[in-house]
Description:
Layout: E1 3-6, E2 19-25, E3 31-36, H1 46-57, E4 61-66, H2 72-76, H3 79-98, E5 105-111, H4 114-125, E6 130-133, H5 140-148, E7 153-158, H6 166-174, E8 178-182, H7 195-212
Parallel strand pairs: 3-4, 3-5, 5-6, 6-7, 7-8
Antiparallel strand pairs: 1-2, 2-4
Amino acid sequence: MKENFRTLDIIGYDNEKIRNTFVKQEEQSEKLAIIFPGIGYTCHMPLLYYTAEILLQKGFDVLLIEYNYNNGDFGLLSEEKKLQWLNFDADAAYNSIMNNSYYKRVVLVGKSLGSFALARLNEQHGIRNSIWLTPSLQRDHLYKVMRKHARDGLFVIGTEDPAYQKEKVDELKKSGGSLLVVPDANHSMEIEDNTYKSIDSLVKVLKAVDKFI
Length: 213
């Protein structure tokens, strides 16, 4: 399998360029995936790297977003301003690839903070097939979107993740969502001080992603 790697010109919030990698199949594909990482969990880390590999093997073009939220400006903003920034960047990433495109199927992947981008694209652009990795269940706005579109989503979280809330996970399941809850997994879907169990956790996530796609 051969792919072509390049960078798209994506202008985000406050006229800042959004770093990205666009991996395109050698032959034209009608399937696209957009991956939004966490603030400290990049697309090069295991959950997102191997999720991208599965998507590529299934014939998707893949757009990997690497935004710049680790700078001091973002951290000092109010929650409202942070959401405004996130939403603007999500729209910019989506529009950069979808304007005049030929894609018939789009899958979104979001890790932690990236879940807010998924919520924006679910609501604003009607993109439904979404993989929510360790989403912030305690955020009411985000949770309402997840529950509203649960039937079209895969939700992955560990019981040791600070964002884990059993009641809300159960509600997502009742709403028709596909769920994977990994016992003892933390926010990185790893088992503390146990490398082999962490690898087992990663395999479980990837199998769930493969099945969902």
